Amino acid sequence: MTWLVVALGLFLLVFLHELGHFTVALAVGIRPRSFYVGFPPAIARIRRKGIEYGIGAIPLGGLVRIPGMHRPSPRDLEAYMAPALREDPSLTTSVQRVRRLLEAGDFAGTHAALPELQQQVESAKINPGARRSARRALRDVDEGTSPDAYWSARTWKRVAVIAAGPLMNILVAFVIFFAVNSTDAPTGNPTNQVAAIEAHTPAAAAGLRPGDRIVAVNGQPTPTFEAVSRDIRGSHGRAITVTVERDGKRATLGPRATIFQHGKYIWGFSPGFRSVSYSPGKSARLAADDCWRVVTGTGTALTGLFHSGQRAQISGPVGIVRSSQQALQIGFNWYLQLLGLISMSLALLNLLPLLPLDGGHILFSLIESVRRRSLAREVYERVSFVGVALIVILMYIALQNDVTGSGPR
Predict the structure, then answer these.
(1) Could you count the other beta carbons within 10 Å of the beta carbon of residue 339?
(2) Element spanning 314, H or E
(3) 10 Å Cβ neighbour count for 376?
(4) CA 196, CA 309: separation in Å to the nearest integer?
(5) How many Å apart are CA 324 and CA 198, to the nearest integer?
(6) Which among 234, 254, 276 is the end of a domain?
(7) What mean pLDDT value characterizes the chain?
(8) Mean per-residue pLDDT for 7-11?
(9) Are 78 and 141 in contact (CB under 8 A)?
């Protein structure tokens, strides 16, 4: 059940990100061609008003296909049509006609000439691979020359569509933080009540349970969590007994030896924390503070990439799932707080000025606005290669932290 809640939460964050792109694209007149829950191949799909809605087989969020992300290129048309032309040279005349119109910048004429070529491709005797490649070429040209193509839209529309995804994640984070602060916000003050037990630890083996209140360690009273923590860490690996209050009765668990993890001796449980609720006004201010704290923390973490001692602050998918599970075991509001943090982090990551991230597309839209001319697809692809390489390095560091356990616990 814990895994299901964690997976659903992460899925919703990515889905809402894509929903932001989709909604704003419709609002500014750039009609998306498809919107999927999950990634294709499709399990089910339906078409309404020119938009294909579907459920994908890969449950990793959502997918929005925006028409004409790049200016249509005659060279791309020839490259994708080449297999079909080799098998059916009769297509050459129509392909060259469309190519000449593209080269001349006559996009309305190109769009009008496409149906004839599309019909010829469908009736041509070519193998399935060549047909798929030809369809890809025609789809790209059709969407790139349509009146609602992204690349030809005004700059503010392009920026709005791309920025809508990260802004949706920021809004979601704010709403989550506001809800938590308004209802039952965890504080930084731990109690001696047990919130969660880590598997395969002395605490689990001794029979410690969530809800137990630790009142003594080795027979010494522990009225606060600080006293519990001090006695456990001071064991230096020796066996200890823990006395708890459970259902109005006292029970002594152990002896079980402590274990050394992350630079300290532990028994393997997480404490509960005192919580507090705030007024709507204060909850909004605290939610804004929480969002800003993630911004500054993310900046520190990214700066730490250049300092080996600070790279442990970066966490990847494994660390995120592990932390989400632990937070959910402590309490649902703890999990919601972590989900808000992840939503903000997702927004900030996407706003980095690197292609193919959203921030890179925003940057290139502004560059093209200054140049008053669109950049070729090849430029996007070359810059994207650099961006992907940097993202892969970042993911490698995060996964290393996840594997070594230096990420959040």
Answers:
(1) 25
(2) none
(3) 14
(4) 30
(5) 13
(6) 276
(7) 88
(8) 83
(9) no
Model confidence pLDDT, tens digit, residues 137-166 = 999 999 999 999 999 999 999 999 999 999
43 burial via Cβ count (<10 Å: 0-12, 13-18, 19+): middle
Q: Are residues 329 and 393 both part of a single domain?
A: yes
| Domain hosting residue 51, numbered range | 2-69+159-167
Paired residues of 66 in beta bridges: none
Question: How many helices (DSSP H) and strands (DSSP E) are in the chain?
Answer: 13, 10
State the Cα–Cα distance between residues 371 and 63, nearest whole angstrom.
Answer: 30
Q: Are 46 and 163 members of one domain?
A: yes
Q: What is the pLDDT of residues 296-314, one digit of tens each?
A: 888 777 776 655 554 444 5
End-to-end CA distance of the chain: 20
Report the SS3 class of residue 154: coil
- Regarding whether 200 and 56 lie in a shared domain, the answer is no
- The answer to the question of residue 332 being in a domain is yes
Which helix (DSSP H) or strand (DSSP E) does residue 46 occupy? strand 34-48
Looking at the DSSP assignment, which residues form a beta bridge with residue 252? 243
Q: How many domains does the chain have?
A: 4
Enter the DSSP assignment of 374.
Answer: P
pTM reported for the whole predicted model: 0.78
Residue 115 β-bridge partners: none
Instruction: Flag whether 366 is in a domain.
Output: yes
d(CA 49, CA 66): 15
